[in-house]
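Take a specimen:
=====
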Amino acid sequence: MADLPPISDATLEVLKGIPTQTLIDGLWVKGWPMSYIEGAKPLQSSQHMAGRAVTLRFVPHRPDIVQDKPKGADSAEYVAIELCGPGEVLVIDAMGWEYSSIGGDIKFLRMKQLKAGGLVTDGGVRDTVVLKGYGFPVYSASATAKQGPAEFWPWQVNDAIQCGGVLVRPGDAVVGDDDGVVVVARQAVDEVIAIAHQREEVEEVIKAQLEIEQCSPGKYYPFNEATWRLYEEKTGKKRPG
């Protein structure tokens, strides 16, 4: 991982235009986990997000944790937020505790100032009316009025975490739309994009043919020999090897 260059801003723009379900199909074709973050629902509709992951892990509350953790601006959540710009998405492992708050308007005001690329968590967020106006996409398991510190604390920045059952490593691509959030491993991004574009093209051919034939989608979908014959006939391109 260390010798891989960061995902470029141009690549992030491409990813932002690919539906999450198509990225999942590309991951499946290459044998990667589907990496759909369970519980991360869009705070509002028509969100489109793509960024490099900055990760933050929460741990359960215990008095010695409270004593040992850095305070003020050195606390893990503020360190993580400062790493976020327009090309970064903050991904927070809240252990799926969806009714415990990982933060709200005051903590995430800084993300607005930094023009962060987005926020994703399998936990809950507070102050959603304010967050909706901050201008960056938010995906969370719930909205909640509860505070978080009585139950868990931010602890570790930019290590491998889980979020919604998915492994997320710093620098991975994190892509969101109305259907949720998908993580694409940094080293798989280019291949997954290529497969996603091809699948979109094939599916458009299938849909056009189904309108003509008025037949069951099962004739061509999932992809089969008839699909690839149709694709070659309609596009003049060869099926993938």
Notes: The radius of gyration is 20 Å. The chain has two domains: 9-186, 191-235. Residues 191-235 form one domain. The first strand starts at residue 41 and ends at 42.
